[in-house]
Amino acid sequence: MSESDPKTRQRPVQWSPATTPETKPLPPSSWAKKTGFKPKFSSETNAGDSGQISLPPKSREHDTNSDLEAGRLKPPPPAVNGVTHREKVPPLPPSKDLVPKKRRDSDGVVPSTNGQAPAEQPARRTARSEEVVGSLPQTVDDDFFVTRHSHMKYELRDSPGLVPIGVYGIQHYVSILGSLILIPLVIVPAMGGSHEEISSVVSTVLFVSGVTTLLHTIFGSRLPLIQGPSFVYLAPALAIINSPEFQGLNGNKFQHIMKELQGAIIIGSTFQTFLGYTGLLSLLVRFINPVVVSPTIAAVGLSFYGYGFPLVGTCLEIGAIQILVVIVFSLYLRKISVFGHRIFLIYAVPLGLAITWAVALLLTEAGAYSYKGCDVNIPASNMVSEHCRKHISRMKYCRVDTSHALKSSPWFRFPYPLQWGTPVFHWKMAIVMCVVSLISSVDSVGSYHASSLLVASRPPTPGVLSRGIGLEGLSSVLAGLWGTGTGSTTLTENVHTIAVTKMGSRRAVQLGACLLILLSLVGKVGGFIASIPEVMVAGLLCFMWAMLTALGLSNLRYSEAGSSRNIIIIGLSLFFSLSIPAYFQQYGISPNSNLSVPSYFQPYIVASHGPFQSTYGGLNYVLNTIFSLHMVIAFLVAVILDNTVPGSKQERGVYVWSEPEVARREPAVVSDYGLPLRVGRLFGWVKWVGL
Fold first, then answer.
1. Predicted structure pTM score
2. Exposed e or buried b for every residue in 564-575, given b needs 16+ CB within 10 A?
3. Rounded to whole angstroms, how far apart are CA atoms 560 and 651?
4. Of the four listed, 148, 167, 185, 402, which is most buried by Cβ atoms within 10 Å?
5. Nearest to 404 by CA among 534, 528, 254
6. Which residues on adjacent β-strands are paired with residue 574?
């Protein structure tokens, strides 16, 4: 059995001051010293060469003996006549109240911090320092170094056996199923695609997701993160789909727009690849912190408020059931465990979809949506009966037998590159996608950091970070060549799935990716997914976008969320991310104008009527489109304010990354992030994309 076997792994131990001899203080082997990190807290503390945080000459009244970087108690100061310089009375004997305590949330997951021990607050008016190491899942090694994630069932390098790996791999993908399949169900109908084309795109998405996940876990960041179509790409894709030049297309509209999307994605992804593999991202990452990542990701979810419930309202009884069932499973039944698995929390989306689909099928078979003399396959414009025109919407959105995708899809289909034709390249759409790829990189930075705290021995180095982003760019190039309609990037929902399932094994994700590739070759699978009623898709998207918003805001736990500085920055970022795009989207539209697109697509036609109206049409398109994207505005406001408004690193929650020189000397870090098959030696000279 390997050393990574969870049965032989070090178990959590509680440390008490009584267990340390007073005559032998703790060695200065803090996390900061091991990684070479030298914090400089502005106007608060000074950092010595050892990485230990030393106090300024005039210490604060409520200062504690905790080491922020090491996550442990500092050795007591030398005593004079038996009394330390901080205490005028002899210390009380150690009691059980001084033992560090683990605090768990309602889901049983230990809250995490920014790769450090939790920042101390000025005493609970008595002693908040009693919980110095209590915010992370921890163990204490022989050097009194605090390690984390002891609550995980399987960590990054664990390989418990084929059966457990297979079970957990399938569980991981099923729990994140909504993020994989829902985007094609939105963009393909918007492009005028048929049910058969939806089926083909879904199969392609599953195939590309499996391939890129394998590439990322082997040659990218090597963290157990699923790659797939991100919601970051959804809004710009809809903006391109609703461009003015595509409004008059009739024949082959789907293929024409798909080729335009492919060209834009390939160029934007090439820019992301350049950003990663040249090491430029390691320079930019110093400006990307939790206060920047949080509103940027949250704005992605909030930006679709105009799409979600308006489409649910087309068949309110079915859509409302879909939303309520998922909410009940994920919140009210989340603590129910079956055979050690919280099935309702982990499988809330697929279980909710199955139950709602069954209810809709019963209503359809019972004749609830059948109207005498009316045929759902006849266009509303050709219907003579006023009675049928009145009920055509309910027949179209509420019935579950209107799609023929499952019957028409083949049993075997192999997705291949350029299946929709040769990509078409236009510089104005490519620039939009370049900006989007930068936002996607910001999203991935937050996911890398959060997942590394759960499953890895240390956070990645800036080089590993750049390598992961570079490979994500290559993955999106593959997505563009195969024609998925969006780029391929790290799904934000990964972090939530890892925390809930407590499964961080890289091998499990790799095995799941292989199974996903095999599944994509079965054409009936894509046909089955393509036959999901549109109103159910909208109901699931309401939940997924709300979850994405919450996951974005959860990044604030790495900073001082109660700081007035951070609160104002987050508030301004979120408000302007909604208000400024609304100005662009509403500019030049009269209240009584009759637009050719549905109301939920109107925010994405801004290129034709935005406030930028210069003589250069391409420039107008780029500026009007970019400034109508909520996530772009949130990122710009947050990154400017967070990097110009004064604040300490502790207050800002600056991400802590491992130092390359120290990481290369630690076998655990090399095993976590080092490239396999001696590939690392071939590229050892490229210091900015490795350990």
1. 0.78
2. ebbeebbeebbe
3. 5
4. 148
5. 528
6. none
